[in-house]
Amino acid sequence: MREFETTFIVQPEISDEGLQAIRARLDGVLERHGAVRLMCDDLGRKRLAYEIRRFQKGHYLELHYLDGGPVVPEIERALRLDDSVLRFLTVQVSRHVEDIEKRKAEAAALEEERARKAAERAAREVEEEAARAAQEARGDEPPREPDREDDSDSADADEEE
Fold first, then answer.
1. What is the CA radius of gyration of the chain?
2. Is residue 85 part of a domain?
3. C-alpha angle 64/68/86, rounded to 5°?
4. Residue-wise pLDDT tens digits, 55-72
């Protein structure tokens, strides 16, 4: 079996339910064709290098799977038919995967680690937002950086002399 990676970009305002529906549809295609899904990684919302269909941001997802090759056109067809998918690209990661169970275990461990890091990041963001809200409620202002205009004025004065 070969390992493939399909990276696709969906519209940025798509809901979590919409993302789950796309993932479920792709999982169904993989299952129908006997492919082995390794992991589906959510890379988050990012700014696009160029505008696509009037969108400047996109939600990136990455699907890793094992198959002999016939499922790739079906995955791409499903993505092409979905209006919320802006772009997709499929690459062959490995020409021959010998130990499928070992690769599945590695992918599961990686997916678990990424989920843990995402949960930690979300918790940290909630804490930071709560701290900001508490600071605003007290009426405190965040510390400001010193103005750097003073330094440039003194440098200009030195040049004039």
1. 23
2. yes
3. 45
4. 999 999 999 999 987 899
Token digits of residue 147: 């103005």
Ramachandran category for residue 3: left, alpha or beta (phi over 0 → left; psi -120 to 50 → alpha): beta
The rounded distance, in Å, linking the Cα atoms of 110 and 41 is 10
pLDDT at 156 over 80: no
Report the alpha-carbon distance of residue 161 to residue 87 in Å, rounded: 59
Alpha carbon 64 to its chain's center = 14
pTM of the model: 0.71
Range of the domain at 41: 2-98
CATH of the domain at 40: 3.30.70.60
Within a domain: residue 53? yes
Contacts of 85 by beta carbon, 8 Å cutoff, 6+ apart: 8, 9, 10, 22, 79
- Number of independent structural domains in the chain: 1
**Is 160 a domain residue?**
no
